[in-house]
Amino acid sequence: MYADMVTARYYEERLQEEYLEGKQPKFDISAGPIPGELHLAAGQEAAAVGVCHHLRDDDVVTAPHRPHHVAIAKGVDLNRMTAEIFGRETGLGRGKGGHMHLFDPDVNFACSGIIAQGCPPAAGAGLAAKKRNTDSVAVAYLGEGAVDQGGFLESLNFAAVHDLPVVFVVEDNDWAISMPQERVTDVEFASKRADGFEMAGVHVDRDDAVAVYEAAAEAVGRARDGNGPTVLSVQVHRRMGHFMGDPQSYRSDEDQEAAMDRDSIERMAAHLRDHGVDDEAMAEIREDAHARVDDAIAWAKDQPKPDAESAYEDVFTNPPSGVTDTEPEFDLAETGGEGE
Amino acid sequence: MTVDRELTMSRAVVEAIGTEMRENDEVFYMGEDVADYGGIFDSTQGLLEEFGYDRIMDVPISETAYLGAAVGAAQQGMRPIAELMFVDFFGVAMDQIYNQMAKNTYMSGGSVSVPMVLTTAVGGTYSDAAQHSQTLYGTFAHLPGMKVVVPSTAYDAKGLMHNAIRDDDPVVYMYHKRLMGLGWLPSPTGPKTPVPEAEYTIPFGRADVKREGADATVVTLGLHVHRALDAAATLAEEGIDCEVIDLRTLVPLDRETVIESVEKTGRLVVVDEDYRSFGLTGEIVSSVAEEALDALEAVERVAMPDVPIPYARELETEVMPAAADIEAAVRNVQ
């Protein structure tokens, strides 16, 4: 878990550097090697690893627009994810999806840039598992700002009434862009929403990966054993703006500093130290993680840009006659993907 | 009257909203991040300080609830302005938009009116991929019951916003992100125009001939007005004289101005950042064919091909209509 946490954090730091290239001194969102919006998840790693470390490749995860930490914890191919973020031909979506829309069917990972809209498909994956009588589970990640969406609330009811193997993980970073939680809901924790659907709800009040892991063991176990869904809310913190370029003028310095002080990775390191892991071993883990990230970024930047004509491909899996579509020309097995 | 000051489109929109709110206590604004943030696309910048949270309302991320609440308040006679941050998010609340906001007047036999404005950001050009880059003019103009406004300059934006707020029907006001004058998403030079301080309205259903010409009629709206004007400038050097028509509103649609122009030029190019099939380009071409077939010598459509908008810059550039595509289309119809 520590390895994935430091990988995710360093990955975000490196993406930030790459993203800002060409956007300085004047920030222009359409300039630089990574254009478009970029939503970073630094500070939310505990929610990703604490849950995903219970999951297998056949378990399904749907992530929201802030997906990298969850993707890393789920085992998404780091090289091809990075190539996608750089808009390259060998990216997970051949350069068509970008950072908010990452799909890796090998590990059953998907994303949506629309708030809470990963919840219904997660319920659907749970439904498929139930119908096929397998023990795979589905996990929908969403932010605390998303819990007022119909897509979330309707999915809770659907999952509850059908006893589906779904865990709804609410990453509570206190901010829905510029809106603090108390201005958008009177419900203290998202897990309390579960009460209204007669389903299990659990809140972890600190960004402690071990505490999340323990709570998730119960939630994922409940789903895997056929005992229905859970809402698991996890207090995390948002170290950055909502997106890169967000001036955060709505946010007080104290709140920002408090978020920076609460470092789940430091907490995890302290836990490991208490359990006899020495600093040297942790430094090695960090070095490996950094090397893996640097390699992925270097590999991605070296990948070919998509041929403009490929814009017309992939609209359909089975293109109607007259519609342009072809198979990808490269062999995925030879893309240097990690294949883990 | 000469006007010295120039405004960005966002400032012009905000000025109109502020004026209407000052004059009418029944006007209020609801949306995500519209208060402290001032709107992600600067659509409410500075309004919170004057009007407070009661009238510049941040809302939960619950489009069904707050867009539907705008419908309900409007049916009570208030004049809400509700912002859908990106038009791409329409799907989570489409029932309230399509089945309630747009239809209640008709289904009530005219006994109910819904005097609200739905503002929303449209457009790509900055690699934000398929869920954050659409224009969807056709989606909103297709179903009856909503007036649909698409300004291309600050001057038009202000006059159209005054008109939208005062209109007794639901108005969908679609502004292109690339035209707003955002610090982080530079605009072309065209949309920043002189804007009078005094209030004025631009009636719906009157297209604006942004450039007069004799050889071809280019019909478009939004960002692509500026791309068409760029194309026209290049073509003028080759001796091709384009007329550029900015539709400004889709519902009502000023077919007359388009037809008159085609009767003069005989050649029609329609440019749209929305998808090609079943949309605006087909509507304009068929309208001209119905009314002025004899005058019509050649037609070209320049639009987003029928693919979701891709992320990578090379791919988005490929599908996004550019000035060069418009130039090529105009040459083809000569």
Provide structural commentary.
- The complex is a heterodimer of chains A (340) and B (334).
- Chain A has 340 residues and is of the alpha/beta class.
- Chain A has a single domain, classed as Thiamin diphosphate (ThDP)-binding fold, Pyr/PP domains (Rossmann fold), CATH 3.40.50.
- Helices cover 37% and strands 10% of the residues of chain A.
- Chain A has ten helices and eight strands.
- Chain A has helices spanning 2-20, 45-52, 68-74, 78-85, 119-132, 150-161, 209-224, 253-261, 264-274, 279-301, and strands at 60-63, 109-111, 138-143, 166-172, 175-176, 179-180, 200-204, 230-235.
- Chain A has a six-stranded parallel beta sheet with strand order 2-1-3-4-8-7, with helices on both faces. Chain A has a two-stranded antiparallel sheet with strand order 5-6.
- The longest helix of chain A is centred in the C-terminal third of the chain and has 23 residues, at 279-301.
- The model of chain A has no long low-confidence stretch (mean pLDDT 93).
- Chain B has two domains: 6-194, Rossmann fold, CATH 3.40.50; 208-332, Rossmann fold (3-Layer(aba) Sandwich).
- Chain B has helices at 9-23, 47-55, 63-75, 94-101, 104-107, 137-142, 154-166, 223-237, 255-265, 280-292, 313-319, 323-333; strands at 6-7, 27-31, 56-58, 79-86, 117-122, 147-149, 171-176, 193-194, 208-211, 216-220, 242-246, 249-251, 267-275, 298-304.
- In chain B, strand 2 (27-31), helix 2 and strand 3 form a beta-alpha-beta unit.
- In chain B, helix 1 packs parallel to helix 7.
- The radius of gyration of chain B is 19 Å and the shape is globular.
- Chains A and B meet through loops of A and helix 11 of B.
- Chain A: Residues 298-340 are annotated as: Disordered.
- Chain A: It holds the Pfam family E1_dh.
- Chain A: InterPro entries: DH_E1, PDH_E1_Alpha_Subunit, THDP-binding.
